[in-house]
Structure formats: C-alpha cells, structure tokens
Design brief:
This protein has 2 domains: 215 residues, Rossmann fold, CATH 3.40.50.150; 84 residues, DNA polymerase, domain 1. By secondary structure, it is an alpha/beta fold. Helix 2 links the parallel strand 2 and strand 3. The chain is globular, with a radius of gyration of 20 Å. It has an 8-stranded mixed β-sheet with strand order 1-4-3-2-5-6-8-7, with helices on both faces. Helix 2 packs parallel to helix 3 and helix 7 packs across helix 11. Bound molecules: S-adenosylmethionine. S-adenosylmethionine (SAM) binds next to helix 2.
C-alpha cells in the first residue's frame, strides 16, 4: 500500500494535467456510475486504475469522508491515476502496485471493507499508443506486451521459445484465431533464421500466413494474434479467474455472516472486452446468484451507445456486468 504523495517504485513522476488529459477515455462511464451508484463516505476499490478516468468520476461522488484504493500492475498508470483522483476530489487514494489477483490478500492486510469495486479489464489507450510497450501491430516497437513493464516474460521471449504446438494452442485459445496452426508454423520457420523481436516483423509474418485472405479480412490479420500473445504474456485469464474467485469467496463470507473485504450490499462492476473475459464474469455472477450470494444489477451485459461507439472505438467491444453482494431484495435492474 502507498499513499499517493509517496513515489511508487519504478514509476516516473505523475504528470496529471486536467487541461490536457489525453491518455484514456473511460468506457461506459455513465452506465458504470449508475451501476455503482456511489454515495458519500463509501469505500471504492478500483482494481484497474489505468488513467484514473472512472476513479475520478467515482471519487467526486464520495465526498471528503470517502476512501479510494487504486490497484494497477503498471506503476506509471497507478501514479497518474492517484494524482488525477487527488486533483479532482478531496481524497488522497491508497495505491496498490499489484495484480487484482491478490485483491483479497491486499485488502485484508489493509483492513479495508469495500462498498464499490470496479475492474475495467485489459489495457489503457496510453499503453497501446506507446510503441515501446509493443502492444500494437500498427506501431514499430519491441515485442514486449507486458502491462507491468518491470515484471515477467516478454512477448519476444514467448514467441521465440515456445514450441510450435503450444504457440498454435495460445493463438487458438486466447485469440480464437482459426489460422493459429499456420501462423505458429510461420513463426517457428522464421525464427530459425533470426529471432522475432519487433511488432511489425511479427505482424508481417501473420499477414503472410493469411495470404490472399489478408485482403478480405474485416480485421487486421494480426489482431487476434496480438490479443492472444498479450493475454498469455500477462496471464490475464488466470488473474481474472483468481479475482472472481476472491469476489465469490468474499460474498460467501458475507452470506455466512463472517468478516469479509466486501460489505453486505457491495456493488461489483466488471467491464470486459472480449468473449473469453465476459464468459468468466457472466459465469461467476450466475453462480453467485444461484447460491444466493449476490444479485445481478445489470440486465445481462450493458454495451456502449451508438454515440459512444462513434466517439471511442475501443468502447465498441466493451461489456459491463454488475452485481450486488448479499441476499437482500433485488434492486431495480439498469
Ligand atoms: C482499461 S485500463 C483502465 C482504465 C481506467 N478505468 C480509466 O478510466 O482510466 C486497464 C488498466 O488495468 C491494468 N491492469 C491490467 N491487468 C491488471 C491486473 N491483473 N491487475 C491490476 N491492474 C491490471 C492495466 O495496466 C491498465 O492500466
């Protein structure tokens, strides 16, 4: 835990400038606020603080007695979001530079009982826009893809050391890429000559595996491959499963009247960007409902309006689901 005035390890000085905030537009902002329904004095935990867009909106509604705890694996985004929350509210947030997979351990250590929890999954625009992060096939850069640039294995390591069979499996499972086998074979053949170290080099290889299909494909041919490698590099689905498991366990403790890091009546909102994420979230919420641990607040998944989709293309794939912990009366659906 860190108070936001303290420097966060590995993070450059945050430079939040409200006049020129360009890093990231929070998706489904209104829908998220309606689902969370923040009130004065509540405790808000943002598991994916990013550029602090959602956190700033929520913090403004909590008043001086509210509390904000921010998580992010990216130390620079964590520092930036903390500075942003402080700039727009009278709250000095606590920051946790850790994966949301460890939410239970971290909040229990801090003695926090959360009223509101948000996870806006995946990456922020400033991360994909930075060529040095290697997340975009449109920008020449090192094949890195780590959301925490200080930890773990890079995409280059994965691409150059994984067996052809395992690579194909990653592309098919995490990218739902029908040409996974062909692309994996291309990668393994190419790396016999020289390692694959750059984004555009990999994107060109994928395009060559697509052949004539590259011209008719609606998406850029490298879209699914990059998604799959990013998910594998950051172990995204394991982290999400661990976090959802912690939410269920905490809701079970509420149900049984035992101490929990989630308050009775806590609202948990999760925004996913692809079917693999949404499936896990949906299943968790359905299981909690069946076990009388929580009720869904949203009627299915909420998606962006036409105007938001036009203004922010990233919102087009966003799906918001929210649930309320506890077995009290069903709240009105959104
Ligand atoms: C979509 S952005 C969040 C944007 C934020 N809601 C806003 O409005 O600015 C996702 C953020 O989550 C972080 N992240 C991704 N996986 C994470 C994990 N397992 N634990 C903590 N943070 C994670 C990324 O580094 C990124 O900064």
């Amino acid at each position: 835990m860190n108070q936001s005035k303290q420097p966060i390890d590995g993070a450059p000085e945050p430079r939040f400038d409200s006049e020129n905030e360009v890093g990231h537009l929070p998706v489904l902002a209104e829908e998220t606020l309606s689902a969370l329904d923040p009130k004065l004095g509540q405790v808000y935990v943002d598991l994916t603080a990013g550029r602090g867009g959602h956190a700033a909106l929520v913090a403004q509604r909590l008043g001086a007695t509210g509390r904000v705890i921010l998580f992010d694996v990216d130390a620079a985004n964590l520092a930036y979001s903390a500075a942003r929350v402080e700039a727009v509210s009278s709250i000095r947030p606590d920051t946790v530079h850790a994966s949301f997979a460890s939410v239970a351990r971290e909040l229990e250590r801090m003695g926090v009982v959360a009223d509101l929890v948000l996870a806006d999954l995946g990456f922020a625009s400033n991360q994909v826009d930075d060529p040095a992060r290697g997340l975009s096939f449109m920008r020449e850069g090192p094949l890195d893809m780590r959301l925490d640039p200080a930890a773990g294995m890079t995409a280059a390591h994965l691409v150059n050391t994984t067996s052809e069979r395992d690579l194909a499996d990653i592309l098919q499972r995490y990218g739902e890429e029908p040409l996974g086998r062909k692309i994996a074979a291309k990668i393994v053949a190419a790396r016999r000559d020289a390692p694959i170290l750059h984004t555009v080099q990999l994107a060109d290889l994928v395009r060559s595996a697509y052949g004539a299909r590259a011209h008719t494909s609606r998406l850029h041919p490298a879209t699914k491959t990059f998604q799959a490698l990013r998910i594998a590099v950051n172990d995204e689905l394991s982290a999400l499963s661990a976090m959802l498991g912690s939410v269920s366990t905490a809701a079970r403790r509420v149900h049984d009247g035992r101490p929990s890091w989630l308050a009775c009546g806590a609202r948990v909102a999760i925004i996913g960007f692809h079917s693999l994420e949404d499936r896990l979230v949906k299943q968790c919420f359905v299981d909690m409902r069946k076990n009388d641990l929580a009720r869904e607040i949203t009627d299915g998944a909420l998606v962006s309006s036409d105007s938001e989709s036009a203004a922010n293309p990233r919102s087009r794939s966003a799906k918001l689901r929210a649930a309320m912990v506890g077995h009290s009366k069903m709240p009105e659906k959104l």
